[in-house]
Amino acid sequence: MSKFYINKLAIVGLGLMGGSLARALKAQGSVGEVVATGRRAASLEKGLALGVIDAWTLDMKEAVANADVVVIATPTLIAEKVLAELAPLMTPSMIVTDVASVKGNMQRAAERVFGEVPANFVMGHPIAGSEQSGVEAATVDLFLDHRVILTPLSTTAEPAIALIQAMWEACGAEVVCMDVAEHDAVLAATSHLPHVLAYTLVDALAQNGSAADIFRFAAGGFRDFTRIASSDPTMWHDIALANKEAILQGIDDFSAHLDKVRAAIASGDGDTLYATFDRAKRARDEHFLGQYLSRQKKSPSS
Length: 302
Ligand SMILES: NC(=O)C1=CN([C@@H]2O[C@H](COP(=O)(O)OP(=O)(O)OC[C@H]3O[C@@H](n4cnc5c(N)ncnc54)[C@H](O)[C@@H]3O)[C@@H](O)[C@H]2O)C=CC1
Ligand SMILES: O=C(O)C(=O)Cc1ccc(O)cc1
Fold this sequence. Notes:
9 strands, three-stranded mixed beta sheet, alpha/beta, 6-phosphogluconate dehydrogenase C-terminal fold, globular, binds 3-(4-hydroxy-phenyl)pyruvic acid
């Protein structure tokens, strides 16, 4: 991948994701100039002061002029507005990509703006992040050893896909391609539903008495389970609305399962409870222990 180099990268929406991408590409020497644009001068200025970007402007036209790659890294529901602004500025040699957590609504947004999704728009989603947001939280290794899912369409240009794949690989990520609907179903189950559950649990407890009193007696498990309820509410508001159907399916499936656990507790059915908890422990251990062991194999000292 030694030939991979981006002369000018433009980032629309400089936060955790855009900032971490800029940091990683700069650290690898894979980018010449990084220019960011967005809504708030203060966070763009912060990005410049932190050395995450080389320049910023509030003018989209100036930001994307002569850019090889434009990355849309705003909250999900803002992307359509960004695409509409970008549309008259796009050139055949410019490759546009995004990092949004939901892909179906991104495809529909692009279809509304362009008629059909342009061949040089490669939809993407890094499966890496945290409950923090903003450019100040951006790190150089956020994507290292994480997966990035690309959801190209049959009309997406191969060289554009190859370039975006190379961009993420330069950040240390493993790139996999997936169908849009499959992406949204899988992410609804593994990411969107857990966030909805964590927010709802914390809110239900906090509404149900003094949050300070309840949380005072919480152990580490509660902290682990609810870390993601500290995530940015705007981002998750957007994701919940953008992936509505798949998340509703996830909530329904989960509710049916929870009802079974509730019935087992109510009737004292210890066998069902044990079997449920045992299956869950095995499934989780198998996956995460496997991951841990393969990481140890790669770098035994860490
Ligand atoms: N935070 C995470 O862990 C992950 C986030 N994502 C996705 O990446 C995208 C960005 O997320 P983060 O970087 O975490 O968010 P962030 O809040 O850190 O950054 C978003 C940036 O977009 C800017 N912005 C907001 N409205 C805008 C507008 N109207 N025009 C231009 N800029 C605007 C904000 O000022 C901010 O700088 C979202 O679509 C999110 O779903 C994907 C994977 C992981
Ligand atoms: O904080 C965490 O553990 C996350 O789950 C981060 C995350 C948030 C949104 C995504 O679309 C992908 C990853």
